[in-house]
Amino acid sequence: MVNFKSTVFAEGELVYTDGGILAEYAWLLVVLPFVAALVITFTGKYLPLKGAEVALTTIGVIFLYSAALMYLHITGGVVNEFFINVGSIGVFDIEFGWVVDGLSIMMYFVVGTVALLVFIYATNYMEGEIRYTFFFTSLTLFAGSMLVLVSSPTLIQILIGWELVGVCSYLLIGHYWEKKDNSSAAMKAFITNKIADVGLMIGIIILALNTGTLRISEILYQSTHNYEKLSTVAFVAAILLFIGAMGKSAQFPLHVWLPDAMAGPTPVSALMHAATMVTAGVYLLARMFPFYKAMAPEALDVVMLFGVITLLAAGLIAVVQDDLKKVLAYSTVSQLGYMVAAIGSGAYTAALFHLWTHAFFKALLFLGAGSVIHAVHSNSMLEMGGLRKVMPKTFATFIIGTVALAGLPPFAGFFSKDEILASFNHEGETTFFFIAVIGAFITAFYMTRAVSLTFLGEYRGHGHPHESHNLMTTPLLTLSVFAIASGWVNIPGVYTGFTDWVTTRKNKIVEYHPESFDLFALSSGLLAGLLGIGLGYYLYQLQGSAETGDDKIKIQPIWSVLENKYYLDHFYFKFVIDPVKINISKAVDKFNTNVIDRFVNGFGQVASLMGGVVYNNFDQNGIDKLLNMSSTGTDNFGGKVKLLQTGKTQQYLMLFLGGVVTISLLILFII
Amino acid sequence: MIVQPVLVVAAALFSLGIYGILVRRNAVMVLLSIELILNAVNINFIMFDTMLADVLMQGQIFTIFIITIAAAEVGIGLAIVLMLFRNRQTANINEFDLMKW
Amino acid sequence: MILPRKSKYYVAAFALLGTLFSLAPLVIQWANYSSPIYAFENSFVVDKFSIILKGLFILITYLTFLLSINFIESDKYYQGEYYYLLLSSLLGALIVSSSRDLLTIFIGIELASTPMFLLSGWKKGDRKSNEGAIKFFLLGVLSASLILYGFSLLYGLSGKLVFSDISSYLLSASLANSPVVLLSAILVISGIGFKISVVPFHSWAPDTYEGAPLPVTAYLSVSSKATGFVALIILLTKVFAGSGSSWGIILVIISGLTMTIGNLVALQQNNPVRLLAYSSISQAGFILAPIAISGITGDYQDGIFASVTYLIIYAFMNLGAFLSVHLFSNYSGSSNFYEWGGVARKSPLAGVLTTVFFFSLAGIPPLGGWFAKFVVFRSLLGSANSIGIILGVVGAINAVIALVYYARISKVIWMDELKSSNEEKIFQFENPLKVVGIFTVLITFVSGIFPGIFSYLGEVSSIFFGN
Amino acid sequence: MELLTNGVGLSVVVFFPLISAFIITLIPKAQEQLIKGFALVSSLITFVLSAVLLFQFDFSSADKLQLGNKISWIKSINANYEIGIDGISLPLLVLSTFITVLAIIYSIEHLPEPKSPKGFLALILVLETGMNGTFVALDLILFFVFFEIVLLPMYFMIGIWGDKTVRTVSGFKNQIETRLYASIKFFVFTLFGSAFMLLGFLGLYYRGNKTFSIPELIELGTSGAFTGTFATLVFAVLFLGFAVKVPMWPLHTWLPDAHTAAPTVGSVLLAAILLKLGSYGFVRIAIPILPEQAKAWAPAIAILSAIGIIYGSLACLAQTDLKRLIAFSSVGHMGFVMLGIASLTPIGINAAMIGMVAHGVITGLLFFLSGSMAHTYHTRDMGRLGGNMKLLPKTGALLGFTAMASLGLPGLAGFWGEFMALLGAYNPLDGLNITVFRTSMVAGAIGTVLTAGYLLWMLQRVNLGEPSDEWSDKDLHDADIYELSAWIPLVVLTVLIGVFPKLIFGATNDAVIAMLSKAFGG
């Protein structure tokens, strides 16, 4: 039932290994977490660490396995995919399976690494919180679902993983569901994603029905060998898939759920809403990249447009946020915008590269923020400040993350962002290029603002915050190493291993990849970053303090527009959700009870009513009336009517004979 | 042989009976008018019998049967009327409407 | 009748035995049956049709006796006469079922109905009973006289009394559709329409049913109705076979009206007996439908098959229904079935029986009623004739309407709260009644699950009759 | 095993429950334990036997009718006792025997008022006979009889053990107890449908040279024996009969009332099996016998289903009554099933089949849960519930799981029905109006969002949040062993079908393809 020798298309000059036993057993990556989740659910309470240990061992195994795969892959590219038929429906084979190639291995590694660190971090961060065990159950479940998604060789399995991670995020965002806001935030995330998933679903349906298969590699093969049937629907399908991606990767205007998702515990935000889950959209686009490139280049332009809009819009909002996690959330949205835009510009590697680096430094930032929040028991930066002294480790690592995000060499963000800019420049998208540069500037600025509000100046909160437990700082340190070094795997002209990783796939990737640094892009990006930091430092340190910093840039009405997030939520609630939830549904219900039911009951009523009428008028004393009517005409007969208007028996006789007469008339004269 | 007049007489008797049934109040009278109808039938049978010169005399035999049965029915009818009269001191059929609906 | 009053219960036993024994010759006849046997100048015949229906009549009478025993003993009633009258009525029914000339059939009809006039007024002290009797009597006699008038016309036209002669004469002289024949047909239909209580000749039924003692009512609604149908079938197919197209239409209209009006009015009833009266009126509409259609299509065999099958099944379930009404009205002492809340819990057996009978009447599988309805629909649609299909649709709608009031009774007895007045009463379910109940319920189930048997009876009767 | 393959086995599966019901009625009321034990055992035997048949069934030729037999039943009208199962009926048959076992397990400790195990369990078993019979019957009259047999038990279940709250019904002058209104409404609606269905059967009987045998009629129908107005009329009445049962909009209004009023087990069986009789009728009778008509009607059916999906979901959003909400959700889900059927493609009808099973399992479980919650809290008003996760953690967790399954979460059973139905509707059978179907598909897709919406909203109102004070002092019992042992199997089944749909497709696919290729010349 497992199909090892899946049809390999003669593409890609490189000769790949099939990964051997390690690839064969890669399904463990997917299955283990679910088993672990079950184990935790049923035995968790009785374990010394309340189930955390199970989760940790599982994720540890996964990390090691992914590392091993990584090693295998670096030494010699691995491409292989495995299929399990789980039923045939009509002509379709519904298949699950797992794919082992550069892209997926990279994702395995990211998920494995970040997840491991976050889990370790969480054991301490969540200590004493309610539903500690359940938290780890769903976290493990999430890891599993994410791996289902990234390991999927078929669209159907992508859809499954896609929705499973959605559910896990629902569970984890709503972790503190005693407060209605949290459960509402969870619902918002789920529904928004579900709306996007409609796009994905229909997109998959269209692709499947026009290629006759659900295997991604075959679809890509058909698209690169421009099959007629596929090309006719390519654009629509591409757009629909992108809608799906917009949901998960929080692209404008479907990004609204991500900031609210910060209602969940910080480790969750770090793992799902920064590093892994939100990159699912980017991953999907990357997976399908050959299809986009070959069949729907117009769709790529749309993708790029939305990406650019997102990176700018979200970045601007991030400037006005006072909630540390919200700042990071919007920054995430904006960075995702970068990735999507990169894919749109056809820079496949660049996008994935940014995904890779961003996963590490954004996770680092979130965990740092978590450590801060843990210390001061508040999300609001207005109640922080001056933590530099009390939380040195956190501060140091946070700074590293910030710089990486701001894109200064030699930190990771610098290389990835530079590559994106370079590809924009190469594509000649001048406008977008400059928007991206401005984005870089804004990024640097709001990060500086955040840092100064949080760590510099004087402490404005209550209590006496202190450095966090080692279990929390160690992951920070580890991640900061990645935040520095993860960029070095893809330095143009020096070492471009990453490119080879992610392009070793069954289907050939045709993309632009800079051979050497594009100095213009490099310098402008660097400049923007420095300017941003400088301005931030100037406003919040040299000129006045963190408290007064905002006043300088409170330019109305822009400020309030940004504070209200472009009034998107207002719009959604006012014009979409409330009407459906309140007016329409009520109307339907009314319709049901008052129209259809009334009709039905009315039918019964009419029947018995007729019964009454027949009974009283015809059956029992109708004859009088009948005679009245017939008799009033003639006098001589009318005289006798009085005599005729008598009691029952004679009416019966009358009826009887009347019947005879009518029948005779009928039969003799009509028929 | 004259046929029509006799049939007409029979028909007249028949209609008379019907009329009586419809307008007479007294149960006995109603009964009697029904007897009229039966007699109309009898006349019919006899008439046809003679008209067709039926060797089997079926018409007449039939008539005899009718007369007997009519007698029996009158007996029964009178019994019922008596019973009613005993219970209600009236034979007016139009007052018997205990059971409407 | 000669026995002293105290030993009257011998009468009951005797009557029961007698009826039972009278089944024996039937069985023998059936066993060595070769071909129709004619007697008295073709005016009396023994064929499978007659045998089957005689069997039916005898069984019904037997069950009626069982029903009656307690009723008769419960009060000062003339026992001997009671049984005597019932038996003579049975005799009439038997005569009808194998009569082949006008005189015999007339005697049969009279013999069957005249005793019922008396029996319906059996509760002497009860005014309702008297009234029912007088209404029944007057209309009955009128109907009889109409039938006679029709007969006289036939005789005058053909000079024959034996059916075969008459019909052959009518055909040869091609008078089948002459006004006179039609008029006599109408008179006969109306006259018998009274016995089978179809609209508009039904008005006596509810009152008489309500007034008469319950066993008598049961007998009226089953046996006399059956007698009427038998007479109707014989006359229409033997005498007026030629003019089917004309009376077919009339009967279609009548049966449509009967179903609908019977149902609609039944919806209004709160008196179980009246409800059953109207229900049996609408059932009569169903029984009539196939004959009517067969008149139009000329496929008498199919029509008779459907009607007879329906009759047989209907007879037993209707008896059962009367039985259950009898039980519950005795128990709760109320003739308004809305007062019967929850009585089924006092006697689950009676409750189950009631449910079975009423849902069978409603035609719900696997109870016999469904097959009865089914054969009717079958022959209606089988006619492949627009009128037939329309009548079928009307019937289907009526079947649904009927459900409402049939279900109402079992709803009341099962689902409503038990009335406090009924709490302490003990439920009497005498053995004879138990016998009736079990017997009828068995037949109802068998006829629903293995309808083959009954359709077979209907079939053979139709085959041997429709020649 | 000769006995298993020559139809005896199937007949036993059908009639054994009936016999046991009869035996139960003979056991004196006093011995409750005996009654319960006997009912459980007999239902178990039935289930085991059906499982054995599952192994006797030859999946390699799942498109053939197997394990059946044909003996004369009513000679005079040429109706035969003809039974047999193929890939289409097999899953439903097993499902029905399975659900019945669970229903009885649940009833052992949780009998509705008034407590009378005798009657209740007997009725359940009679019901099972009706359901099993409908799935194995291959003769129209036999089918009709079984189709109707289910009415009486359900009528009494709702009417006697139903919800006693008095409510006003629009169009009625005076108030009426929910159970009474619901029971008679259910009964009359269904009978209305089936009365006409019977006329349709008779029509087929006369045009199809006097046979009621479904296979023979299929042969005739596919060879074009039924055409013109006749066929249109017949399909119309068949549609009426089946659509009421499904129920399709706008014939659905009996469903919410029946479900709200019915006792827990009643609504479980109603949702899990009875609704399937209608959709099964479409697949088994209406489409193969009248393919051309089916083609002509398909767009209408698709539109109605789409309306049903949207309408049901919207109605759900307006509900305050938990069970009523779930009832309306059934309207939506069966809408997906009918959409799949309407597409007349192998994909669509397979989707319908798995949709039926999944809906049976999931909604059955939902009704179990809601019923037991209503029993615990003595209210179904979601305004008063809340914080259920805290009060009844087990029930709450299961409710959450089932809700997720019901909103079509991939990896759980509900997903395949919805997704594949949409897949089928995108490319309907050649010659069907593409626009109509794609529109309905989009409507269905939007329906999935609404579905997620109301189910999550339900969870938020029922499961999450802080429980209100009124429950603080009451001692609420979480699911006990009987409940769990009735529910867990359904959960497992949901997951199994979700990750390995071959469990269903393996049986249905060949049969469906064969049926369609016969009907529409593949």
Count up the helices of chain A: 29
Compute the average pLDDT of chain A. Answer: 81
Strand content of chain B: under 5%
Major β-sheet annotation of chain A: 2 strands, antiparallel
In which range does the helix fraction of chain A lie?
over 70%
Shape of chain A: globular
Calculate the mean pLDDT score of chain B and round it. 84
- Oligomer category: heterotetramer
Helix-strand pattern of chain B, N to C?
HHH
Largest sheet: number of strands, sense, barrel closure of chain B: none
Distance between the ends of chain A: 77 Å
Shape of chain B: elongated
Rg over CA atoms of chain B: 17 Å
Please report the first level of CATH classification, the CATH class of chain B: Mainly Alpha
The counted number of beta strands of chain B is 0
Q: Count of helices of chain B?
A: 3
Order of strands across the main sheet of chain A: 1-2
Q: Any low-confidence stretches of chain B, pLDDT <50, length ≥5?
A: none
Output the structural class of chain A.
mainly alpha
* Portion in strands of chain A: under 5%
CATH topology term of chain B: Helix Hairpins
How would you characterize the overall build of this protein?
The complex is a heterotetramer of chains A (671), B (101), C (467) and D (522). Helix content of chain A is 73%, strand content 3%. Chain A is an all-alpha fold and 671 residues long. Among the domains of chain A are: 297-559, no CATH class; 571-670, no CATH class. Mean pLDDT of chain A is 81; it is low at 1-10 and 619-647. Chain B is built from three helices and no strands. Chain B is mainly alpha-helical and 101 residues long. The mean pLDDT of chain B is 84. Chain B has a single domain, classed as Helix Hairpins. With 467 residues, chain C is mostly helical. Chain C has a domain at 240-467. Chain C has helices at 9-31, 48-74, 79-97, 102-120, 127-158, 163-172, 179-195, 204-211, 214-238, 244-266, 272-297, 300-332, 348-362, 369-382, 386-415, 420-423, 431-449, 452-465; strands at residues 37-39, 44-46. Chain C is globular and about 75 Å long. Chain D has 522 residues and is mainly α. Helices cover 73% and strands 4% of the residues of chain D. Chain D is built from 21 helices and four strands. Chain D has a two-stranded antiparallel sheet. Chain D has a two-stranded antiparallel ribbon with strand order 3-4. In chain D, strand 3 (166-167) and strand 4 form a beta hairpin. In chain D, helix 3 (32-56) packs antiparallel against helix 4 (89-109), helix 12 (264-289) runs antiparallel to helix 13 (291-317) and helix 15 (346-377) packs antiparallel against helix 18. The longest helix of chain D is centred in the C-terminal third of the chain and has 32 residues, at 346-377. The mean pLDDT of chain D is 89. At the A-D interface, strand 1, strand 2, helix 6, helix 7 and helix 26 of A face helix 8, helix 13, helix 15, helix 18 and helix 19 of D.
